[in-house]
Amino acid sequence: MIPTPPELDPVIHAQARLRVMATLSTLGPGDQITFSRLQELLDMTPGNLITHLRKLTAAGYVNTEKRGGRTSTTFVEITPRGRSAFDHYLAALHDLLTPSGHVDRVSSPAHDGRAPHTKEP
Amino acid sequence: MSQSQGVAMTDRSQDVVSSDPPSPELLLALVEGQQRRTEHLTTPDPRVMYGTWGVVWFAGHLLLFLGGLADPLLPLSAALAVFFGMLVVGNAVVGVELVRAFHGLRGDSRRFGILYGLTWPIGMTAVSLVVVAAGAHGLPDPLAGMLFATLPAVLTGVLLMAGAALWDSRVDFGLGCWFAVLGTASAFTSPPTTNLLLSLLGGGVLLVAALVAALRRSGRPRGEG
Question: Fold for domain A15-111?
Answer without folding.
Answer: Arc Repressor Mutant, subunit A (1.10.10)
